[in-house]
Amino acid sequence: MRTARLLAVLLLLATSSTVLAETKAIKFGKLVDGTGGVITNAVVIVEDDRVKSVTSGNVPTPSGAEVIDLSRYTGIPGLIDGHTHMTYFWDADRNPNTAPRDQPPRFPAVTVFLAQENARKALEAGVTTIRDLNAADGNDLAMRDLINMGKMVGPRMFVSGTGIRITRSLGPPVPVGIMVDGVDAVMRAARQVIASGADWVKVYGSTGGFDDLTQFQTFTFDEMKAAVDVAHALGKKIAIHSYGPAGARDAIRAGADSLEHATDMDDQTIAEMVKRRIFYVPTIDHNQYYVENADTVHRFPPGTKERLLDYIRRNFETARKAFKAGARMVVGSDAVYNGWGLNMRELDWFVKMGMTPAQALKTATTEPAAMLGMDKSLGAVAPGFLADIVAVEGDPLTNITAASNRDNVRWVMKAGRVVVDKTKGR
After folding, report:
1. What burial class does residue 6 get, using C-beta atoms within 10 Å of its C-beta: 0-12 exposed, 13-18 middle, 19+ buried?
2. β-pairing, 200-204 with 237-241?
């Protein structure tokens, strides 16, 4: 009997010790909590992977908790990038004279392994969650699962698997996609994507991408509607890519959950998007990235930079009109290759178009959390939410670059685990 009691006491002590070891008390000079609150001298208590409490001032910390003093910094929720391509990796060291899309093919396992570098750069930019829209060979599904299993370090991933495109003569390089035509084929493709384990369905409703700035509608309204209906019937959401206004109009009419890139939309189309509460991910900065890398990395044809700059101007103006009309805007970097780490530069464009820094920050926190159906777990530092927390230098409510510039990100926690720490020696 004494032996049994002793074992029970030892087990209780061991269990208590484990719980306490997983409790953290994090101190910030200021916390922008994502719910509208700004808390000075904040103390965030984290237990396991969740926030337990958020208080202010000189409050007692739980016995045995690890104290993390970040009082020199501003705390913000983990940032969410609503449009990325994690598995688009450029092995510049081995292919210095080859443009990223001209790299020789790789086995999927090699791609997934190499893409860990992109995942690391995302975390270092304060991005703890991404929505990844199009990947070959199930690479995004594999990365998502490895990260969720704790076997790979990276942002939480919501993925679309392989995107759905119309059959057309393209390339080289041949774009990643399931090529289909007609309502029945689109429905089968959408079911195939969902059966593969994807969280979202992505449909390419127009041409456009990289140095292709055309805006021709591809799928018809009926085809888009078929994909939307399949996705919704199976409990999934759907993102529709459209560089141009025609594809955007039909994507909105079809009931897409999010609209990607859309430029040159007229007031009526924007009003319909706002009425239906469809999320708009304009991805303005990704073309600025292409301008900066057109010659040295991507080796685009002459004249491409000028066309990119013209598209950026129109894209920005469309997004500005959408914001003024009340659209639900979401940050999307469309990050590829060496663009990883620049994930939050879109915030600068949003402030430039008239958003306050607080409004802009919501496009990378609460709005994408709602888009993902995770508004009770992501996008805020609040009790019960996943402990995704970022410490930045400066105040993003005064100057958005505190959050948009990766150099200002000093410390990152994802689900209660510290995954980036640049505070040492400072």
Report:
1. exposed
2. parallel
Total residues found in the chain within this entry: 426
Report the C-alpha gap between 134 and 139 in whole angstroms.
9
Q: Can you read off the two tokens belonging to residue 135?
A: 């990947």
Tokens matching residue 310? 């013209």
pLDDT in tens, 268-325: 999 999 999 999 999 999 999 999 999 999 999 999 999 999 999 999 999 999 999 9
The string over 166-175, giving b where at least 16 C-beta atoms fall within 10 Å of a residue's C-beta and e elsewhere, is: beeeeeeeeb
Looking at residue 12, what is its pLDDT? 40
H or E element at residue 206: none
Cα separation, 63 vs 1, in Å, equals 31
The beta-strand segments (E) located in 282-388 are 328-329
Confidence of residue 172 (pLDDT cuts 50, 70, 90): low
Region class of 289: left (phi > 0), else alpha (psi between -120 and 50), else beta: alpha
Q: Cis ω on the peptide bond leading into residue 396 (within 30° of 0)?
A: no
The one-letter code for the residue type at 23 is T
- For the question of whether the overall pTM of this predicted structure is more than 0.90, the answer is yes
Q: Are 31 and 75 in contact (CB under 8 A)?
A: yes
